[in-house]
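Example 9 (inverse folding). The structure is encoded as follows.
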């Protein structure tokens, strides 16, 4: 087995709790990779011999980013809707129906090549693990094929038939479909099940029915909740013991306590608030209360068409009260936690050698130099992509 030494690392973010600080930083570091996995981490001066060596040139090296929330299977775009919103119109969940119509009309090949382009775009910005949801098909056939397409790119696929009630459908009958034949068709291609628990989409009882039906056939739950206003979603997620509940913008103290007590991760999606001119979720309040916080893009054609984790880091630091270290932790270790993954999200022996090289001396530059393309290299399983 070939071993690779990555040396001359100015700052190495390990996320190893056995090391100092939240990020377990090692300065003047080196890392040895064997068989796609991290074999050794430590000060460069102590590095063992390896078959081949790669000079990081003093750059900062971080674990590859884990984007635990995206909606990449769709056709068409909604630039016009975005422009209208920026001209003063407000965002409503109903815009999803525009994308549904375009997605149903698209061929498998069109959808697949579109996802491929977006995954490549994410990868260039440092994302090495991602979750992809369905939710723009909303028929049994279109949800199943959306998930089958997503599965070509990641194992972290999420059935989101309960994204919105399609035009002309009766809500109760649609929930029956989602929890019945549509779920059955989705299961072979999905690991997770999700619902959009929001006024204008699905209420708490409907979301519960969807998540429980998924659990009964082996899918793990996640939930969109409390994005556009207060609601029952966050408490439902905590009660069901979900790994993560996403958005969490409008929370009362009971919601925050429920998240802390359940250990359910609050995944914040600041690109959405940026793109819809809504108030940001209060990450500081959650962290100070002892809630585990992840960050993800929510990349989708309506409310947030960014694929950039570095943008999310900058927004979380500038607008949501996170420190640069907390924001980096939230897109690496916490992103992995939000997907129940213990093989990614950190650079410690035994983890997959997924990493990001920054054209910068420290991770702080991701927030300090917003909008600058600092990611100069991305490795997946020990190899440059
Ligand atoms: Zn979403």
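The amino acid assigned to each position is listed next.
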């Amino acid at each position: 087995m070939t071993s690779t030494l990555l040396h001359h690392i100015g700052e190495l973010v390990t996320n190893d709790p056995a090391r100092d600080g939240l990020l377990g930083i090692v300065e003047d570091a080196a890392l040895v990779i064997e068989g796609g996995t991290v074999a050794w981490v430590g000060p460069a001066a102590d590095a063992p011999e390896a078959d081949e060596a790669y000079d990081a040139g003093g750059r900062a090296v971080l674990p590859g980013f884990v984007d635990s929330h995206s909606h990449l299977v769709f056709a068409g775009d909604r630039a016009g809707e975005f422009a209208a919103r920026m001209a003063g119109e407000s965002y409503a969940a109903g815009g999803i129906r525009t994308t549904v119509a375009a997605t149903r009309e698209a061929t498998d090949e069109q959808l697949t090549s579109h996802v491929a382009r977006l995954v490549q775009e994410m990868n260039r910005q440092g994302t090495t693990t991602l979750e992809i949801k369905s939710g723009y098909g909303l028929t049994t056939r279109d949800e199943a094929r959306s998930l089958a397409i997503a599965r070509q790119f990641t194992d972290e696929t999420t059935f989101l038939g309960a994204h919105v009630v399609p035009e002309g459908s009766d809500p109760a009958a649609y929930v029956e479909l989602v929890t019945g034949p549509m779920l059955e068709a989705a299961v072979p291609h999905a690991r997770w099940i999700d619902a959009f628990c929001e006024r204008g989409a699905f209420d708490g009882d409907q979301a519960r029915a969807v998540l429980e039906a998924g659990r009964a056939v082996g899918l793990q739950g996640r939930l969109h909740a409390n994005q556009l206003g207060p609601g029952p979603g966050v408490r439902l997620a905590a009660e069901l013991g979900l790994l993560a509940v996403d958005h969490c913008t409008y929370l009362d103290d009971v919601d925050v306590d429920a998240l802390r007590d359940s250990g359910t991760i609050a995944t914040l999606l600041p690109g959405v608030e940026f793109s819809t001119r809504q108030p940001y979720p209060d990450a500081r309040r959650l962290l100070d209360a002892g809630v585990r916080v992840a960050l993800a893009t929510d990349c989708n054609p309506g409310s947030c068409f960014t694929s950039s984790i570095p943008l999310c880091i900058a927004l979380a630091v500038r607008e949501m009260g996170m420190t640069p270290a907390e924001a980096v932790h939230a897109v690496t270790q916490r992103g992995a936690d939000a997907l129940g993954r213990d093989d990614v999200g950190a650079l410690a022996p035994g983890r997959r050698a997924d990493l990001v090289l920054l054209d910068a001396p420290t991770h702080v530059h991701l927030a300090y130099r917003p909008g600058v393309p600092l990611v100069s290299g991305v490795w997946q399983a020990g190899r440059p992509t």
